[in-house]
Specification:
This protein is of the alpha/beta class and 267 residues long. It has one domain: 4-Layer Sandwich (Metallo-beta-lactamase, Chain A), CATH 3.60.15. The protein contains 5 helices and 18 strands.
Amino acid sequence: MKKFHLRWKGIALPSLLALMGLHSLTACGSHQPKDASSTADTAEVDVFKTKSGKTIRFHALMHGSIRIEYDGKEIEVDPVRKLGERTIDFAALPKADYIFVTHEHGDHLDAEAIRLLTDEKTRLITNQRCAEKLGKGEVMANGDHLKLSDDFYVKAVPAYNYTEGRTQFHPQGRDNGFVLTIDGLHIYIAGDTEDIPEMKELHDIGIDVAFLPCNQPYTMTPEQLVRAARIVRPRVIFPYHYGQTDVTVIPTLLKNDDIDVRIRHYE
């Protein structure tokens, strides 16, 4: 197990307009209905362009599990095989170049899914607790930076509960969110968190795409997610990890904020 403490310095329109001359957007959400058995080929896909015109594809697998394709690379976030009646066959997916795990809970950490996605090239990046449980992984703590390639950087950011009666779910300092910067596109994957003060630091980064959790009481209420959105100011938001929480109210709550809210099957 390797421990890293490196330092790195470091689109909301539903049309095809260029955003500030840097990023263009193609909306490709398939909106396919999910039955009890979800598979990679039924996942909704959203496509974005990076600053140099390369393509990033986000596959909405389920809950907190996200598959990202970029320039021939496979990136998996919190891959989990089964939640309730929904399943993902990770054996049918390409091996991952990078796997990110935010924290140790069973809807985020699945050792068998990681095994199925891993080969000799795979880099597993997580926090201390997950690395201890798995017996492997590159450890990042809140605030750590890592350069993965010339055009791919990651920063670990805080993810925790602050509301009285919830702090035992995700204590401060233990878990990670991640900011992925891929060829200039800034992607915030919040992990399990509430609308914490540290989100203010993300506004200056210029987040393009944000995945914000919305399942009470473990992460954010819809109202908290709206507050988080107004702090971070991403161009596009995917409410995710939402379980039984009704996220369909969020586009209405943010209708005057110039933020593109996309509801996908991240139950």
